[in-house]
Design goal:
Layout (H helix, E strand, L loop, with lengths): L1 H18 L2 H9 L1 H5 L6 H9 L3 H11 L3 E3 L5 E5 L2 E4 L12 E2 L4 H15 L5 H14 L2 H9 L6 H18 L3 H10 L6 H7 L5 E6 L8 E5 L8 H10 L9 H10 L5 E2 L2 E2 L6 H14 L8 H10 L1 E6 L4 H51 L6 H18 L3 H26 L8 H23 L15 E3 L5 E3 H23 L1 H11 L1 H6 L4 H24 L10 H14 L4 H21 L4 H18 L10 H4 L1
Helix pairs in contact: 4-6, 5-6, 6-7, 6-8, 7-9, 8-9, 9-10, 9-11, 10-16, 13-14, 16-20, 16-23, 16-24, 16-25, 17-18, 17-19, 17-23, 18-23, 20-21, 21-23, 24-25, 25-26
Amino acid sequence: MRYRLMAAALALLVPLTALANPALQAVVEANLDQIEQPSRRTVGPLVDQIAATGPEGLALLQAWAGRSLGLTDDGRLAIIGGDGATDAVTGVPLPGAEPRALRPNSGVRGVIEAALAAGALADPDPARRAAALDSLSRGGDLAGLEALRAALDDPDPVLAARKARLERLLTIQHDPDSTARVAAIEDMAGDVGLDFRAALNPLLVTRALVAPEAPPGANVARELTPGDDALPRAAALAQLVDQGLLQPPLSPADQRAALAAHISDGAVGGLPVAQLSDPAARDRAYEALEAAGTVPAAATEAEAQAALEANRFFEVYAEPDPAVTAAAEDARLQAQVRLGAMTAIDLGLDALSLASIYFLAAIGLAVTFGVMRVINMAHGEFIMMGAYTAYTVQTLIADRTLSLVVALPLAFAVTFGAGVVLYRLVIRHLAHRPLETLLATFGVSIALQQLAKNIFGTQARPLTAPAWLEGSITVNDVIGISSIRVAIFVLALLFLGLFLFIMKRTRLGLEVRAVTQNPGMAASMGINPDRIAMMTFGLGSGIAGIAGVAIGLFAQVTSEIGQQYIVQSFMTVVVGGVGNIWGTLAGATLIGGLSKVIESLNPGNTLAAQTFMILFIIIFIQFRPRGIIPQRGRAAEV
């Protein structure tokens, strides 16, 4: 019975021994101390040796990078898992073992992850290939570059493009052949990607070098002259001190203080005090004290000047190859030019987005003032009413898309009705009395704000956009615009088309144009000017409500939301041309564009941007008091 048990035990040990990886075992035994205390600078060859031993080695590396590799008391590497520990070389379970976890630093983990990524570049799983590319982009080296070049062909076109780009970037960073690096830089010249610019930056780093002549073989970026703007004299002296070519300079005041402190028997350093009015004599006296060890060593003015004249000052590239740095400088210049153009495009998109918001907010003002000559100070509160209408709808309808679809026409209807009520109760009784109308609508504005505070409170209310409007349209690292702003731009175009259709193709539009041109003649033709004025005021108010919904999608809904846009709306109408839809469009474009340009010049001070904008409007109306596109007919005579 005893022999049978021994035979069974031997039979169990045979497969365990077969599981052992002799190559991995040899590498581990020879480098156990480095595995226990690795260094990022020296661990690379060891990681490559472990990875070359096969699947067991890759599993060990994965555990090491994931901080699940441990060391037992008897000096064996173990992989620590939820079910206990197993031998990292043989895979044999280690019951009862409590290995001490090895915790490599981030640099060592980066080297390990790069080695693992190189092995996963040809994995059948696209997700693993993508993860491998992510790891290589974070910590690739020459070995990773060679592995990437061997796996450039990829069935996934997106991953194939990523591999090709990463290969160019790693070539720039790690390829020992300068010709290949120059070719890679020239291939990507003009690219504005952050990864490409990050790859160029180390090549163009310079260090200060001071020497009598340019060192042979040094890749000199430029030579500087002490005293110029690029190298002030004080900075040049500091470089001489840093490189041990000059003692710290001594200021005249410090020199006088040191000499005064060492006067003995009417002399300092062997020179009579009466002779110390001469700067050269003071220098000799200080040097004598310095030789005696009574004062700290310091450079006199004459010594500092001599050191400046005896040395030349250079900025030297850290990259030794001039061809590489020349290509990198050219590529960076092209990238800066293209980046400037793309920044201008991005600024233009922002300006277009802002212009569409101003257009939506101002079109109602343009309509009412063009027909009725009424300055409606409560226009901002119609914007506020539209935003609160959308918020109320959203609290009742959970589906964001459906709530937006319902809110748009409902906001128009609510504000249209409010505009009609305001006209019937206030505006019509103050016809041809602009000052009284302005004061009355200003009072209505204050009343509506207070009413909103009583109903909804003073806390800002969020108006959440649908999921399909939460993202952004991104062209590259520079050009991008939020989906909400694109939707507002489209909405502005739709309302422009709708307004033109109403004004050009409907009876209401015909009557509005008739009343606008000549209300007396229109009345004699059977048109009721009072009814047209009421409908026009309601239409302008309804469009303001639509604008409120659009603005509420990216701004917090408060009782003051309309006041934030009322000034810009009036400026848009005045600059564009009162009562002209095309003038309103032109004014919104001009105001939006100038606002973004001024903000880009002074991004940290929005108040200054608004101030400059108002100054521009004041100057503009001095030259074109009737706006960019003035209205014809009756408006031209007023």
